[in-house]
Amino acid sequence: MTPVFGLCDDYVTRSAALDPVAAGMQGLTGVFGAATDYSPDGFAAQAELNAATLAAKTKLTNATVKYDDLSSRLRAARIDLDAAQAAFKYKYSIITPPDPMADTTRSVSIQ
């Protein structure tokens, strides 16, 4: 289950428990309770659920933004690495092998 789906599922389940009448009218099935609490405590519980869900949504949004930023930075670094490897491969290639039998002891005179 994805974090967003989990947040939505948790909200719907907890909201249905707080307001079983609305849950039944929306077609949700399950044992949520006999009646909705329309007292100030019931409205406060619903407001607390909404605030908690919005706070969790904000955390998920921030995490998603950070993930997208890191993902794009990793992608750019990977492209840079691939380009550097390709440049190195073609920059430092041996065209003619050196002659191991070449005489390196002879002297050259400059006139």
Walk me through what this model shows.
With 111 residues, the protein is an all-alpha fold. The chain has one domain (3-88). Helix content is 67%, strand content 0%. α1 (3-18) runs antiparallel to α3 (40-91). The mean pLDDT is 84.
Mean pLDDT: 84
Specify the biggest β-sheet.
none
Helix content: 55-70%
The ordered H/E elements are HHH
Please identify the structural class as seen in this structure.
mainly alpha
Number of strands: 0
What fraction strand? under 5%
Question: In oligomeric terms, what are we looking at?
Answer: single chain
Work out the helix count. Answer: 3
Number of domains: 1
- Rounded to an integer in angstroms, the radius of gyration calculated over CA atoms is 34 Å
Q: Low-confidence parts, pLDDT < 50 over ≥5 residues?
A: none
What is the approximate shape?
rod-shaped
Distance between the termini: 84 Å
Give a summary of the structure in a few sentences.
The protein is 67% helix and 0% strand. The protein has 3 helices and no strands.
What key attributes describe this structure?
mainly alpha; 67% helix
What is the topological layout?
Elements: H1 3-18, H2 20-25, H3 40-91
